[in-house]
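Q: Is it fine to ask for two folds in a single conversation?
A: Yes, each is treated on its own. Send the first.
Q: Here.
A: Result:
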Amino acid sequence: MSRNDIDKELSKTSLRVYMYLLSRNEPIGPRQIMRELGLSSPSLAYYHLKRLEELGLVKRNNNGYIAVPGLKIEGYIFIGRKLIPRLILYSFIYLGLLIVEIAGLILNLLRDITPTIELIILIIFTGMTFLLLLVEGIRSYKVVRT
């Protein structure tokens, strides 16, 4: 099954179950998943585990289910065993640019050089881009965590 097919097959709850299993790195049963993720029944947890198993994302052993690492989820990147929205990483690039631009503004002010309107516009644009990417990244993170 292709990566695109897997992306289409994963529901929000299945993704949460997968992420939970991935973060634990040990065999977990349906009842524990139900309790930890607040699912309504063990059968609902079992349903999502079976879907993930069909997609090759989890394996079952005598002690429960364990995640198979390596799923690439569009818009996210794994850092260690944590799934992080790419938008959050991109926002940090703009934060670095913003810090450099503000440092340039401060240096100009210390040298009694009047800042140009272009620099002010650049700082505003970079700051707004940083905030937009950060907020959208946090929203993406909340979607898969709740």
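Q: Second one now.
A: Result:
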Amino acid sequence: TTVDASVRGKSTAEDHRSAVASFVQSLLNVADREEGGIGAQVRLIAEIQKNSASSTVAAMTKVESRSGLKTLFIGSDYKNLGILRSEMVKTENNLARLNTLLASTTSATDRATLEAQITALTADQAKIKGFVTTHENTFSFFGWFAKLFVKTDTEN
């Protein structure tokens, strides 16, 4: 079962990497066409999302590669789940910025591309949220105790 979970985590991480690569490429295409208008802002969002993807994939892989025995006793990898939540907030901010830029786009082609990419990134966010929720709710004997230390560390 641990091997299945590990493979599932890697496919989820790889799915995310693939989705973000497609998203970034599409945004860069829009940025090239919209040089004078919103192009620079779209390019910046694409770069931020590209950098965020590597952190997200690394965190997902670490969460999934945690041994079943360790998860049973201590709980999930709450540190990396926190990283995932942080990356999700960054992505939500980027989605909000893209929606604002969408309103100022005059090209119908670029508008359609941006709408499709916003939809795709929103769907990917839902998958990551499901991943985090699933791993946060994994049964463990002393997970509640481990969470106390993780929360204390993040507050200081």
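Q: Anything structural to flag on that second result?
A: Two points. The chain is about 85% helix and 0% strand. The CA atoms of residues 2 and 68 lie 6 Å apart.
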